[in-house]
Please model this.
Amino acid sequence: MKTLGKFKNGNRVTTYSQHWDSYGNKAITVHQSEDVEPVFKRAKILKETTMPRGELKFKASIPLNVMEEASKLAAAHWGVKKHEAYREITQSKTDRAQGVLRTLTEGRDFRKLQGA
Model:
C-alpha cells in the first residue's frame, strides 16, 4: 500500500492510499479519522458552564465523523442515500431524524459527547 497524501483539517485527518484490489487493478482508499479528545474536553467545559436563566442549554457536541456514520446507518435503514439522510438529520423535521439526534444527544453510549 502506498500513501498518496495526508491532509489535516482541524482535528480531522484524511489519508489517501493506493493499493491493488483482488482483481489486480489499482484502487484508492480514503480513510478519515478524527481526534475526539478535544471534543470531549469542550463538551465537558460547556456542560459545566452556567447559562443565565432562559438561555439555551448545552446538550452535546457531535463530531462530523459521528454525524457521517449516523447518516450512513440511517440511510441504510431508511432506504435513502447518505447525503439525504444527513440532510434530514441536520434539519430535524421528521420523527425518525429527531430519534437519531435524540440518540446522539441523550443516549448513554454517547455520554462523553454530552459532557458527562
Observations:
- The longest helix spans residues 64-78.
- Residues 103 and 109 are 8 Å apart (CA to CA).
- The helical segments are 37-48, 64-78, 82-91, 95-106.
- The two ends are 40 Å apart (CA to CA).
